[in-house]
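Repro:
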Amino acid sequence: MSLTKLLAHPLTKDMDIDDPLTTSVRREIIRSKPFLSKLYQEWYKRLAHDIPVGDGMVLELGSGAGFFKDIIPETITSEVFFLGSVDAVLDATQLPFMDAALKAIVMVDVLHHIPNSEAFLLEASRCLKPGGVISLIEPWVTPWSSVVYTHLHHEPFEPDVKQWEFPSCGPLSGANGALPWIICSRDSHIWDDLLPDLRVESITPDWPFSYLASGGVSMRSLSPGWSFSSWRFLEKLLSPLRTKLAMFAAITIRKNNS
């Protein structure tokens, strides 16, 4: 038996990842695992800090398993399939909003599941008001994360692909975990031509161990909730090595003011 199967969370280990019920169960898992819940709270506070003041709506993509709306209650939550816990079912490449209607689009672990990222970013640019942001937490490519994502994770992780898209085989099973790094770092030099109204404002690689320690949404907890602050203290001590160790990155993309 493999290590991932041995550690699989009993509530979802035999469930289809593309089944909406799996996302509903994962929502319960996030709330019930103290360590993981604290990690999501930290991520959500990071996203909330990015949201500009003033008029405009806030859209969260891929809201199904999370609780960002508890942090920013006016958020419009969404998913790619029907769930009773979200406000809308929508396609990230065809957003049902007027031009410049949104001041922020937020997401956690979503960009690398969108089959056509360029189409999404163009659509996001249309919907964002000048100065609006796309704020996201996504997997990141480092020597350490490449080992973990390649050998201990079920999703494809392909840093060497040339394109920003992949064949759509399912709403959650289709993915490339390296895509956020490809788009925002490796290929940042082509943004002026492809996405002239958007710019990557900041990238903060972080969280080399805490998500693993939490067990994530698919594995059992590997560390108790009370240890979260200790793990984060260790990770902050190791921040000079974050380009070597980080498993995720907080990314802010802003629409130009003119």
